[in-house]
Amino acid sequence: MSSLPHAGAVAPDLPTRPARPVTASDIDDFERDGVICLRGMFTPAWCELLRQAAEEAMQSGEGRVREPQLGAGQGRFYSSVYQSDRDARFARLRDASPAPEIAASLMRADTVRFFYDQLFIKAPGTAAPTPWHNDLPFWPFRGNDLISLWIALTPVSKATSGVQYVAGSHRWGRMFRAVTPDYDPRFMDETMDVCPDYGAGQGDPAARVLSWDMQPGDVLCHHPLTVHGASGNASATQTRIGVSIRYLGAQVEWDPRPHTMALRRNPDVAPGAFPADDVALPVVWRRGEGLLQA
Ligand SMILES: O=C(O)CCC(=O)C(=O)O
User: Fold this and answer.
1) Could you tell me if residue 193 is inside a domain?
2) Ligand 1 and 130: CB distance under 6 A
3) CA dihedral sign of residues 242, 86, 81, 36
4) What confidence tens digit (pLDDT) does each residue in 123-163 have?
């Protein structure tokens, strides 16, 4: 049993496999669009455990609260990374949940390593958007096999707060200037183009923007180059909570650059090498064995 806080809150019988297998058709959709919404992969018990943990995280004072300059100051955009280092409920998500198997299936990977987790909470009335971006520009890696699973822990309405994606943008091979929700200049590489705001109709008019109404337990899975963004939260009543968990597969190289994020620990490998460091990026799932920490 984990020695992290809240270990006692984790029920032993939470499912460790997805509610249904990821199909060949799901993989085709993911590879074509760079994003897919998988319905009902986490049970209500999972969602309730993580929703409670997410709300406690927001109240704890850790993490970052962003209702930037452009907001009316009424809402709250909360985000926090590596929650699984601080809370056994998120550690359970990282190591012993349906997430690693979903990641393995969509990446067609034999081995899945944990990268990091990130909470995104938008209180009702939050003005702050999630600026349009793709993820690889601020990650110290290059390669095709990095995946994010954004798990809805509350209902999400595409009309008021859903994450939006440009279908097929992972195949453009483009790295847009990273823009964090608080416009942190450390991540902004001036040599890269600014990402158009596809929500405001900028960019290619033929671009197909995808978004979904979601229920708790539905999972958005996206490729590291898929362009995405979100509005604030225009709902007057519904908090929007998602937790993103990111994993690595086989085709990945360590590539630290001046504007990439700091990991809690760097892999002990040379730039250009596969980041086979079991402490920095632990293996959580292996084909034929399944979850290693469950
Ligand atoms: O939840 C959001 O608004 C942003 C999510 C996101 O950018 C991500 O998961 O990579």
Assistant:
1) yes
2) yes
3) negative
4) 998 988 999 999 999 999 999 999 999 999 999 999 999 99
